[in-house]
Hints:
Elements: H1 2-14, H2 19-34, H3 40-47, H4 56-69, H5 72-84, H6 90-106, H7 109-126, H8 131-141, H9 152-164, H10 172-197, H11 221-230, H12 236-247, H13 252-270, H14 279-309, H15 312-323, H16 327-344, H17 347-364, H18 369-383, H19 391-400, H20 404-427, H21 430-433
Helix pairs in contact: 1-2, 2-14, 3-14, 4-13, 4-14, 5-6, 5-11, 6-7, 6-8, 6-10, 7-8, 7-19, 8-19, 8-20, 9-17, 9-18, 10-18, 10-20, 12-13, 14-17, 15-17, 16-18, 17-18, 18-20
Amino acid sequence: MTALGIAVLLAAALAGAPLVAVLMGAAMLGFLASGIDLAAVPIEVYRIVDTPLLVALPLFTYAGYVLAQANTSQRLLALVESLFGWLPSGLAIVSLTACALFTALTGASGVTIVALGALLLPALRQAGYGERFSLGLVTSSGSLGLLLAPSVPLILYGVVAQQIDVGPSFTIVDLFKAGLMPLLLMLGCLIGWTLWARRGAANAARPLAGPSHGRTAGLDGARIRAALVAARWELPLPVVVLGGIYSGYFAISEAAAVTAAYVTIAQTLLYRDLKLRDLPAVAVKAMVMVGGILLILGVALAFTNFLVDAEVPQRLFDFMQAHIESPIAFLALLNILLLALGALLDIFAALVIMVPLILPVAVGYGIDPVHLGIVFLANMQIGYFTPPVGMNLFIASYRFKKPVLTLYAACWPFMVVLLLALLVITYVPWFSLALVR
């Protein structure tokens, strides 16, 4: 019966059955084989309701969808360009920074490519950047920002890891702090490589906004003031929310509620980018995604409970320890695995499936759960544009009407740079833990 059930599950998975159905079937099959009442499955699914942090997921997701539907991307680009556009290769720096910020705010890598790509790619081409360089920059930078608060994947990792409860304790705020320096490292490496790759090239750059056409000799006070005035209702958001979180004034769920309320007021009443009658449709889109995440999370926790009862993580750790003694070798193998998973799985699915398996093993090797979370998400960032099936490659191919093979060739230099940064993040835990432990 068990062999037949496993065969049916594998066939269903290969046939494209929903992930939640496969996980639910695996959990039920495991409990049946262990002689445990199937009532354990709905109990485990219901257990996530008792997790206060889950309130933050729908609220931050809703806020991200509202920002994506409004004109936030244009105002953000104009502001960043007014501050950095005058530098050598300033437009490339603007693109990298704006993509990181927008991905952090919306929590979705593909949304960044769709929303900002239409502005950035033509601007880069008009500024004299080659087509391959421009495509690679926009596609690879679309996933930057997953390590920056209030990233939804960071929150989800924290929720899953805290349910497992192994290793040193931590909070979601610890994860927000831990992601800051690794993100700056990856961003700095990309900016440094861009400056080196375009050394000797003309520095002329057509601004993304404003009346001027051509690179200014320095900071333009008038353009900065105009950009600040245009973004005046969005600028307080990160200051208030992140300041409240880091200072301890807001809990994560409270910060999410403030963010959702503030974004709604700003975009509907102050900017009027959206009408009040548009909000239900935006909320429905956001909640459909959140509902899928929560359903998968609940079923995955049930499956995790079976794995713990069956001592699968402990057996996996014993097996790996018999063959891999060094934490360095374990981390190298982990990076390879996560890069492959990032190219094959959606980040939310990867988190709920793999964290329960990987975290106990990593803790057994002495790896801090906070450090593991940053390594996990840094790999997912790169996996988004890792051939052959990285999600961002196909989104960019559809958005820019370019063959996927062209995107492969365009992204590989950026991938090499980010892989080097990933090695530093992986093997120098200080970048992740300096602000936390």
